[in-house]
Amino acid sequence: MTKLGVKIMPRKVILDSQGRAVEQTLKLNQMNVQHVRVGKFIELEFQQNKNDALIEARRIAEKVLSNPLIETFEIVEME
Amino acid sequence: MTKLGVKIMPRKVILDSQGRAVEQTLKLNQMNVQHVRVGKFIELEFQQNKNDALIEARRIAEKVLSNPLIETFEIVEME
């Protein structure tokens, strides 16, 4: 069993409206933060070994989970 | 400048309807995955040093970003 994470973030050139809303809320509440971006984290569990799972996770992230026009993704090894 | 991530995932006992929808879509498309969970990833940038930023990030995650009834969070160091 292999567990991998896919971290998907809005591209830096894209206005991240969720991130901006969270940032403003935190600043209004006197929390000491400079900048916020909001993305997704998707955990995938595979029966394959790590090498095969990494290939499959990349395919899934590219084809289904992310929109390359507005997002970038990164595969993260877990455990 | 310190950059930290807050990874927020649904608790295991909670039905993760987004994760289930993604899992079923992947399986219907012959993608080789066993289980999927969908969470959030929030990047926070601080002017403070790492120790102070870690304390502030934990406070922000607990008070604003996560709902402890249905979610768990984890602070992730970046860069």
> What is the number of independent domains of chain A?
1
Share of residues in helices of chain A? 25-40%
| Shape descriptor of chain A | elongated
Greatest interface: A-B, 32 and 32 residues
CATH superfamily of chain A: Phosphoribosylformylglycinamidine synthase subunit PurS
Main sheet summary of chain A: 3 strands, antiparallel
In CATH terms, what is the architecture of chain A?
2-Layer Sandwich
Report how far the terminal alpha carbons of chain A are from each other. 11 Å
Structural category of chain A is: alpha+beta
Under CATH at level 1, the class of chain A stands as: Alpha Beta
User: What's the arrangement of strands in the largest beta sheet of chain A?
Assistant: 2-1-3
Tally of strands of chain A? 3
Number of helices of chain A: 2
